[in-house]
Amino acid sequence: MSADLVKKIEQELSSISSKYYKMILVCEHPKGIAVKNAAENLGIPLLNISLLLSEKLKEYPSKRMAGRVHNLLSDILRNAGRRTLCLDHIEVLFDPTLKQDVIQLLQSFSRNYTLVVSWKGSYDGRRFAYAVPGHPEYYECKEFDGIVVTE
Questions:
Q1: What is the per-residue pLDDT across 131-142, written as a single tens digit (0 to 9) for each?
Q2: Rounded Cα–Cα distance for residues 8 and 4 (Å)
C-alpha cells in the first residue's frame, strides 16, 4: 500500500508548481513511511520537525516559545537548502503551549516551498483532526487549500 501512496505523491508533485499553496498532506497510518519513501525515491530532504524544532525551542522560556515557532521553522526550512521538502514527525507543533494552527502554519510556508507533509492524524474527506476531543493536543481543521493524498 505504501508503494501506491508514494506513486500518488510523485504524481501530485509533478503538477503542483502552478498552485498558490504548494503543499501535499499525505494521510498515512501512524507508523506509515510513504513520505519517507517518497523523499528517498525523489532525492528530497526529509525533515524530522519535532526533533529539529525541539532543539531550537529549548533555548527559550516556555512563555516565549509560541511566538518563536514561525521564525524557527522558517530557519529550519531555509537551512535545508532546497525548495521542495518532505516533513515528517510534526507532532511537536500540536503542543498546546505552542498555540499553533498547524495546517495554517505549514500552509503559510507552502507559498515559498513545496511541502510534502506526513499527516498521521485523521481525515474524513472534509476535516483533519489530530488527537481526540478533550485531549490537550486536540486539533481540528476544516479549511485547507492544498492537495490531500490518502491511502
A1: 999 999 999 999
A2: 6
Question: Residue 29's CB: how many other CB atoms inside 10 A?
Answer: 12
Q: Is the pLDDT of residue 65 over 60?
A: yes
Q: What is the pLDDT of residues 72-122, one digit of tens each?
A: 999 999 999 999 999 999 999 999 999 999 999 999 999 999 999 999 999
Pseudo-torsion of CA 36, 21, 132, 62, nearest 10°? Answer: 90
Give whole-number Cα distances, 109 to 63, 78, 85, 133, in Å.
24, 10, 11, 27
Distance CA 146, CA 92 (A): 22
CA nearest to 80, candidates 127, 113, 126? 113
- Residue 85: half-sphere exposure toward Cβ, Cα within 13 Å: 21
Are residues 5 and 39 in contact, defined by beta-carbon separation less than 8 angstroms? no
Name, in order, each residue with C-beta under 8 angstroms of 33's C-beta and a sequence gap of 6 or more: 2
Q: In angstroms, rounded to a whole number, what is the distance separating the alpha carbons of residues 60 and 30?
A: 30
- The pLDDT tens digits for 15-43 are 998 999 999 999 998 888 999 999 999 99
Q: Are 86 and 38 in contact (CB under 8 A)?
A: yes
